[in-house]
């Protein structure tokens, strides 16, 4: 596969443009491990259009990857070569694909991911001031609680292409659980009652508040990055706050294209899936499109409004599809205006065609005072 890939890239002339020798990359500290690989900070010398030394992020597969993981990683790189640049999308800078270890070289985005940031805001809410009322209403947020609400850390599940049985069992990996038809890793209802209670406790006291203009701006920036991908008919398939990175000037960058595909894509393999961000047709029929990304965007809006809560905390994986098909949706975050909640509900319409495009979402969210795109 790899030989064919390299051959194809050379035929297209793409390998020459983006290919970097391993000697030009010095791998630094580990930034983190995702479900599909790991990312290090690194220095790169003389990248394309970037003479001298540049701090970059380098993604590579975990040790001893399976053949299909290698193939997927290389096709991810292949796809990124054609994406172009946008300030709300992590920029692809180069790659090492002639021989292993295969490396994907990306723009370094230094302030961590949006989910962590939102959760830190929740903790810090006692020190912040609510300055504007665009995204949220003036709703009390935690002040004197020391414990943050308990949240489910399960983001991905393994789902067989034809498998609709979503009962799960924990694999011990906090980010992944595999389907085997028995049990659930979700906490009991009693635990949820306690969780809900602790959230209410946390919101009782109101000393300081949030900058919701910033939250609104986050929503807008993500819509802007996603409409850029939508325009190129790229389906992200794993849009979630944990996959949006923050730059030092608070620019958001959509990252982790590990699952991305061109156009409408039907999943045929067993793979880990971000169940709670998936649309009904993505879970049930394995069909992904920009409109399933729009559904995920609605969940991201909800993550912003809840300052990083985990979706559907009281619903087990197996219960999710019946829950959604019965017309239920995530509840309005308390700090979120009815207008923004209406946008979320539009993102979660059962018929994908009825959901808005990212372009429409961007235009709705864009402040009326903006004169230029
Ligand atoms: O949440 P983080 O701090 O941001 O930890 C994860 C980790 O690598 C695994 O995905 C971080 N990461 C991913 N891409 C980049 C990037 N382009 N720049 C900086 N950090 C990154 C991500």
Question: Can you give a write-up of this model?
Answer:
One of its GO terms (cellular component) is receptor complex. It is found in: Membrane. ATP binds at residue 59. GO terms for molecular function: ATP binding; transmembrane receptor protein tyrosine kinase activity. This is Fibroblast growth factor receptor 3 isoform X1. This protein has 373 residues and is of the alpha+beta class. 34% of the residues lie in helices and 18% in strands. The chain is built from eleven helices and 15 strands. The strands form five sheets. The protein has a five-stranded antiparallel sheet. A four-stranded mixed sheet has the order 7-8-6-14, with no helix packed on it. A two-stranded antiparallel ribbon has the order 9-12. Strand 7 (168-170) and strand 8 (176-179) form a beta hairpin. Helix 6 (212-231) packs antiparallel against helix 8 (290-305). The longest helix has 20 residues, at 212-231. The chain is globular, with a radius of gyration of 21 Å. 40% of the residues are buried. Residues 128-153 and 161-209 have low confidence and may be disordered. The structure holds 2',3'- cyclic AMP (ACK).
């Amino acid at each position: 596969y790899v030989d064919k890939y390299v051959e194809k890239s050379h035929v297209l002339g793409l390998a020459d443009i983006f290919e970097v020798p391993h000697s030009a990359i010095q791998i630094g500290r580990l930034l983190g491990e995702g479900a599909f690989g790991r990312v290090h900070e690194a220095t790169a010398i003389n990248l394309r259009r970037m003479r001298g030394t540049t701090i970059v992020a380098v993604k590579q597969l975990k040790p001893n990857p399976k053949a299909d993981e290698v193939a997927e990683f290389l096709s991810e790189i292949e796809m990124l070569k054609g994406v172009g640049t946008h300030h709300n999308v992590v920029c692809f800078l180069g790659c090492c694909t002639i021989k292993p270890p295969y490396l994907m070289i990306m723009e370094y985005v230094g302030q961590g991911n949006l989910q962590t940031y939102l959760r830190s805001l929740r903790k810090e809410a006692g020190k912040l001031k609510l300055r504007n009322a665009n995204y949220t209403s003036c709703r009390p947020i935690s002040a004197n609680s020391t414990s943050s609400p308990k949240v489910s850390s399960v983001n991905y599940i393994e789902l067989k292409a034809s498998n609709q049985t979503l009962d799960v069992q924990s694999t011990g990996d906090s980010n992944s659980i595999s389907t085997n038809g028995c049990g659930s890793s979700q906490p009991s209802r009693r635990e949820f009652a306690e969780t809900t209670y602790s959230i209410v406790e946390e919101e009782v006291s109101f000393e300081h508040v949030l900058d919701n203009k910033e939250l609104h701006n986050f929503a807008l920036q993500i819509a802007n990055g996603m409409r850029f991908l939508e325009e190129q008919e790229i389906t992200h398939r794993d849009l979630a706050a944990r996959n949006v990175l923050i730059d030092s000037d608070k620019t958001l960058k959509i990252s982790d294209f590990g699952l991305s595909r061109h156009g409408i894509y039907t999943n045929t393999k067993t793979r880990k899936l971000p169940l709670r961000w998936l649309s009904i047709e993505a879970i049930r029929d394995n069909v992904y499109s920009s409109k399933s990304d729009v559904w995920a965007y609605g969940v991201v809006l909800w993550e912003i409004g809840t300052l990083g809560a985990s979706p559907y905390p009281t619903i087990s994986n197996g219960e999710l599809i019946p829950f959604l098909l019965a017309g239920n949706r995530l509840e309005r975050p308390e700090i979120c205006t009815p207008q923004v909640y209406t946008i979320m509900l539009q993102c979660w319409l059962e018929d994908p065609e009825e959901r808005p495009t990212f372009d429409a979402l961007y235009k709705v969210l864009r402040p009326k005072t903006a004169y230029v795109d």
